[in-house]
Amino acid sequence: MKAPLVEIQDLVVRFKGDRTVHAINGLDLTLQQGETLALLGESGSGKSVTLKTLLALLPPKRSEVEGGIAVNGTDVRKLKGKALQKYRGGEVSMVFQDPGLALDPVYTVGAQISEAVMRHKGVSRDEAMSTALDMLRRVRIPSPERRLKNYPHELSGGMRQRVMIALALACRPRLLLADEPTTALDATVQIQILLLLRELQREFGMGVIFVTHDIGVAVEVSERIAVMYAGQIVEEGTTSEIINNPRHPYTQGLLAANLHDVARGERLNAIPGAPPPLEERPTACSFAPRCPIAGPECRASLPDFVTLAPRRRVACFRALEAAAAE
Amino acid sequence: MLSYFLRRLILVLPVAFGVSIICFLLVQIAPGDPLTAIMPVDATAEEQAAMRAAYGLDKPLPVQYAIWIGNLVQGDMGRSIATGRPVAGEVFGAVQNSLVLAISASLIAFPIGVFLGFLAGYFRDTLLDRAVTAISITGVSVPNYWLGIVLVIIFSVQLGWLPSMGAGPGGSQEWEWNWLHIRHLVLPAITLAVVPIGIVARTVRALSGDILTMDFVQALYAKGMSRFDVLCHVARNAAATALSVMGLQLGYLLGGSILIETVFNWPGSGFLLSNAIFQRDLPLLQGTILVLALFFVAMNLIVDVAQAAIDPRIKRN
C-alpha cells in the first residue's frame, strides 16, 4: 500500500481564552490517496477544527496544537511563510460551509479564482482567467464567460458553491477539505452539489475529507465514515459497516434518531442529554453520561480503540460484549 | 455608470432647491434687524423704511425669496449690507481659502487616520489597539480651538517658528503654494486635522476589525494568499465606507471651521460667516450658508458615485 495521504496522530487542540476549551483530544486519522472520508458528528464535536488544523488555519495566539499532522509526508505543523502558502490551496484546499460568506464580496468570481491560479501556477493573468473559465465549465455553471465577470452577490447560493468548488479545485489539490458544503443550501441544490463533488473527486482522483452532521449526506458521498464525539473519533469503518453494523452506542443513537422508518405521530428516538462541556480534557468515556449501556469502567477511564477488522475500529469498552450478546 | 451618475445628478436638483429655501428662512428666523447695524441710532422711522425698501426687505418673504433665487441663478448673490461689495466675490474668495485649509487638513488627517485605524483593527484588543483608541478619543474630545491656542503659544510665542495668524503676505486674496504662505497654513491645518484623525481612525478600526473576522479572510488564507494579499482584500472591502466617512469629513472641514478660522484669523468661510452673523448681514449670511450647503451636497454626490464605483453591491440601477 502507498503512503497515506493524510496521517494524523494523537492530535490535541485547545483554545485558550477566559476558559480553556479542549476541542480535540487525541485524534488519530488516516486517509489513503484518492479516498473519500466523511467526518460525522454534531456541532462542537471538533469536525471543523480538525479540518482547519490540516490547513494550519487556527489562530496561533488563541490555540494550542499538539500531535503529528502529515499530508503527503509533509509535516504541516512545521510549514511557514512561502511553503505554507504553497501548501494551502496548492496541495490542500477547502470548500467552506457558506459560500456567501467565504467569497470576497467586492471581487469578481473570475478574479478570485484566477488570483489563486496565478499564485500557485505562476501563470499570467490571461492564462489564469482561462483556467478559471475552464473550471467554471467543469462545475457546470451555465454561460461561464459571463459568470466570470459576476460578483458573488449576483449568483444564487448553489451557483456560489459551484464557484467555491471551482476555486478549490483550480490548482488540482491532492486533498479537498469540505466543511459542510451543503448545509447552507436548499435541499434540491444540496443533492446537485453532492453529485458534482462525487463526480469531480473521481475525475481528479483526489482525497476528500467531508465534514457533515447529516448521515444521509455522508452515505451519499463517502466510502468511509469516522464518527466524532467530544473531540475524538469514536468509531470508524466503511460506510456500509457504519450504517449496517454500528458498534458504538453513539453511532447507534445517531442512526436511530433519523426520520426514516418512523410512523407519523411516533416519538423520535433522540439521544438523551447533551454533549459534555469541553473545559477539561476528558479522562473517561465522554459519551458515558448519555450512554444506555455504560458501566462503571466507562466512567472511570478512557476506552481504547478496539480493532474489529482492518481499518474498522470502535472506542468503547462494551461494544464487543454488546455485539456478543446479540 | 454614467447613467447612474446622471440620475444622481438629477436627484441633486430638488435637494439644492430645498437647501436654498432653508438657507433663506433660517436667516429670517434669526433674531436681530440687519438695518440696525448700518443705520445711525437716531435714524427716523421714514429713513429706516426707505433703507428697508432699498434692500427689498419690505416685501413679503415669498417675493423676497423669488427675487433672491432669480438673481442667484444669474450669478448675482446681492451685495453685502455691511461692506456694499458683491456677496459672490466675498464668498468665493473665502471658500477658496477654506478649501486650501480643509484640503491641507485632510491630507494630514486621512493618511494618519487610516494608518492608525488599520493598525488598531489588525491588532485588535492589544495594547496598540488601546493606544490608538486613546489617541482617537482624545482627538475627538479635545476642544480644537483650545488646542489651536496652545499650539500658537508653543510654536509662535515661545519658539517663534511659525506665524500665529493670517494667510500670508498677500492677505486673503493672493494665496500661493510657497513657503511664505504655507508656513501660515501649518498650525491651523494641524489643529483642524485632529478631529478627523480621530473619526477616521475609529471608523477604519471598526471596519477593518470586522472585515478581518469574516469567513472570506480565512478562505483567502486557505487558498494560499499571503498576508499582504489578504490586507489588500480587506482594504478594498473597507474602502467604500471609509471613503464616504472621509468625504463627509471634508464637507465638515469646509464649513465647520469657524472656531479655528477665528483663532488663527484665517480669512475663510467660517471667518466670513461669523462676521456676517455678528453684523446681521443677511445677503452675505444667506450666500455663505448656501454655498457651503451646496458644497456639502456636491460632496455627497461625489461620495455616492465613488462608493458605487468601488463597491459592486451598491445598486447602480
Automatic annotation (TrEMBL), chain A:
<dbReference type="InterPro" id="IPR027417">
    <property type="entry name" value="P-loop_NTPase"/>
</dbReference>
<dbReference type="InterPro" id="IPR050388">
    <property type="entry name" value="ABC_Ni/Peptide_Import"/>
</dbReference>
<keyword id="KW-0067">ATP-binding</keyword>
<dbReference type="GO" id="GO:0055085">
    <property type="term" value="P:transmembrane transport"/>
</dbReference>
<keyword id="KW-0547">Nucleotide-binding</keyword>
<dbReference type="InterPro" id="IPR003593">
    <property type="entry name" value="AAA+_ATPase"/>
</dbReference>
<keyword id="KW-0472">Membrane</keyword>
<comment type="similarity">
    <text>Belongs to the ABC transporter superfamily.</text>
</comment>
<dbReference type="InterPro" id="IPR017871">
    <property type="entry name" value="ABC_transporter-like_CS"/>
</dbReference>
<dbReference type="GO" id="GO:0015833">
    <property type="term" value="P:peptide transport"/>
</dbReference>
<dbReference type="Pfam" id="PF08352">
    <property type="entry name" value="oligo_HPY"/>
</dbReference>
<keyword id="KW-1003">Cell membrane</keyword>
<feature type="domain" description="ABC transporter">
    <location>
        <begin position="6"/>
        <end position="255"/>
    </location>
</feature>
<dbReference type="GO" id="GO:0016887">
    <property type="term" value="F:ATP hydrolysis activity"/>
</dbReference>
<dbReference type="GO" id="GO:0005524">
    <property type="term" value="F:ATP binding"/>
</dbReference>
<keyword id="KW-0813">Transport</keyword>
<dbReference type="InterPro" id="IPR003439">
    <property type="entry name" value="ABC_transporter-like_ATP-bd"/>
</dbReference>
<protein>
    <submittedName>
        <fullName>Peptide/nickel transport system ATP-binding protein</fullName>
    </submittedName>
</protein>
<dbReference type="GO" id="GO:0005886">
    <property type="term" value="C:plasma membrane"/>
</dbReference>
<dbReference type="Pfam" id="PF00005">
    <property type="entry name" value="ABC_tran"/>
</dbReference>
<dbReference type="InterPro" id="IPR013563">
    <property type="entry name" value="Oligopep_ABC_C"/>
</dbReference>
Automatic annotation (TrEMBL), chain B:
<feature type="domain" description="ABC transmembrane type-1">
    <location>
        <begin position="95"/>
        <end position="307"/>
    </location>
</feature>
<feature type="transmembrane region" description="Helical">
    <location>
        <begin position="284"/>
        <end position="306"/>
    </location>
</feature>
<keyword id="KW-1133">Transmembrane helix</keyword>
<feature type="transmembrane region" description="Helical">
    <location>
        <begin position="144"/>
        <end position="162"/>
    </location>
</feature>
<keyword id="KW-0812">Transmembrane</keyword>
<protein>
    <submittedName>
        <fullName>Peptide/nickel transport system permease protein</fullName>
    </submittedName>
</protein>
<feature type="transmembrane region" description="Helical">
    <location>
        <begin position="99"/>
        <end position="123"/>
    </location>
</feature>
<keyword id="KW-0472">Membrane</keyword>
<comment type="similarity">
    <text>Belongs to the binding-protein-dependent transport system permease family.</text>
</comment>
<dbReference type="GO" id="GO:0005886">
    <property type="term" value="C:plasma membrane"/>
</dbReference>
<dbReference type="Pfam" id="PF19300">
    <property type="entry name" value="BPD_transp_1_N"/>
</dbReference>
<feature type="transmembrane region" description="Helical">
    <location>
        <begin position="243"/>
        <end position="264"/>
    </location>
</feature>
<feature type="transmembrane region" description="Helical">
    <location>
        <begin position="182"/>
        <end position="204"/>
    </location>
</feature>
<dbReference type="InterPro" id="IPR035906">
    <property type="entry name" value="MetI-like_sf"/>
</dbReference>
<dbReference type="GO" id="GO:0071916">
    <property type="term" value="F:dipeptide transmembrane transporter activity"/>
</dbReference>
<dbReference type="InterPro" id="IPR000515">
    <property type="entry name" value="MetI-like"/>
</dbReference>
<dbReference type="Pfam" id="PF00528">
    <property type="entry name" value="BPD_transp_1"/>
</dbReference>
<keyword id="KW-0813">Transport</keyword>
<dbReference type="InterPro" id="IPR045621">
    <property type="entry name" value="BPD_transp_1_N"/>
</dbReference>
<feature type="transmembrane region" description="Helical">
    <location>
        <begin position="9"/>
        <end position="30"/>
    </location>
</feature>
<keyword id="KW-1003">Cell membrane</keyword>
